[in-house]
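Sample 1 of the test manifest.
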Amino acid sequence: MPAAVPGIHHVTSITGDVQKNVDFYVGVLGLRFVKKSINQDVPDTYHIYFGDYLGSPGTAMTFFGWPAWPKRRTGSGQVTTVGFTIPEGSYEFWVKRLRDLHIESSRATRFDGDVITIHDPDGIELDLVAGSSALKLTAWPDGPVPHEQAIQGFHSVTLTVAEAQATHDFLTHTMGFRQKAQDGRRTRFETGGGGPDSILDLVESPEGPAGEESIGTVHHVAWRAPDDKRQAEWRETLVAAGRNVTPVIDRWYFKSIYYREPGGVLFEIATDSPGFTIDEKPEALGSGLSLPPWFQVRRDTLDETLTPIVIPTNLVQGRASS
Ligand code: ZN
């Protein structure tokens, strides 16, 4: 087995309203809009990316903008909650910020920590979990949330599956995850160095419902590969374990392989490099429509078909206006 994946690389979900989505992730959560691109498999639709200043691996929350898709339901066979790390001591700041911005939230204790649960405009469940991230992050100096309280990348993903045992075995025997804790039907795993950004919670829900790929659901979670060599090793391991794995696909910002874990959740392993500065300077990230070289011929058509996105610019602490 190759060295375990270090942690979450990115999480990709489906939004039905790109503008509301941008207003929320930038204006409320204070993530930076780092890339406006297209879905390379459905190229007349957006693929947009949020993250820290550079969209560093471990921070990139991304969305396919698919307004024509059905709005169905989240359920087993999917990532059902995405957790972000907020700095220790920022819990009350976030409770107040969310209240001031009229975002409904609930509070709970999970394992050893306090959790604030909210939903994005499409209904995707998000947890804000206090912790101390070991990720290499670059702060967004002009962001609406002060650096001391700003989101520090991902904390965790929660997978819901109808039957947990096969996923459990796959995570621990093939992918190198370690079981850390259990609470009822929820089992917590960690990979790599452990801690925030490496956590996977597995929830067994035999009564369903089964999730459907639709607006307001998570499409896949990507795990990090430090380089191409490590990704190739992972691919070999997964194929040997009987997973149906795609060839390496060049996504321009990273290279990717995709497969489903036994519970049906779509996994990706994506390389840390080259990252989002491959075609825009750090200060200009997200400002234009970024296209991989092999899609440049479509630029004029895409400029006409894609609905313009307004990035909130007049950001002030506590609220945002476009
Ligand atoms: Zn992906």
